[in-house]
């Protein structure tokens, strides 16, 4: 089976689009602290750390998934399948960290 013969089912393409939207939303969410701290004289620059890591991880995965969902066949689907597995693992890790942070902060916040 050649890489150009690969086609994605409608269900797989929908999964590509959904996970791409989540990854791009995660990247957008990482921009919020940096934008809120803009022109703040007390800002120490650590609000840009989430943007840096999300740009390295979430943005490329989201774009690869989006292109794979739009294309629907060929090498782009093959790349998008790999990106889907990696993106789901990254999302699982982020959700676990958010749950642990919520537990460690307690009910009072």
Question: Layout of helices and strands, plus pairs?
Answer:
Layout: H1 10-36, H2 49-71, H3 75-105
Keywords, please?
109 residues, mainly alpha
Provide a descriptive summary of the structure in words.
The chain is mainly α. The protein is built from 3 helices and no strands. The longest helix has 31 residues, at 75-105. It is elongated and about 55 Å long. The mean pLDDT is 91.
Class from secondary-structure proportions: mainly alpha
Domain module tally:
1
Tell me, rounded to a whole number, the average pLDDT: 91
Large-scale geometry: elongated
SSE order, as H and E?
HHH
How much helicity do the residues have? over 70%
> What is the CA-CA span between the terminal residues?
54 Å
Number of strands: 0
Low-confidence stretches: none
How many distinct helices? 3
Instruction: Specify Rg, calculated over alpha carbons.
Output: 17 Å
Brief sketch in words of this structure:
The protein is mainly alpha-helical. It has helices spanning about 10-35, 50-70, 75-105.
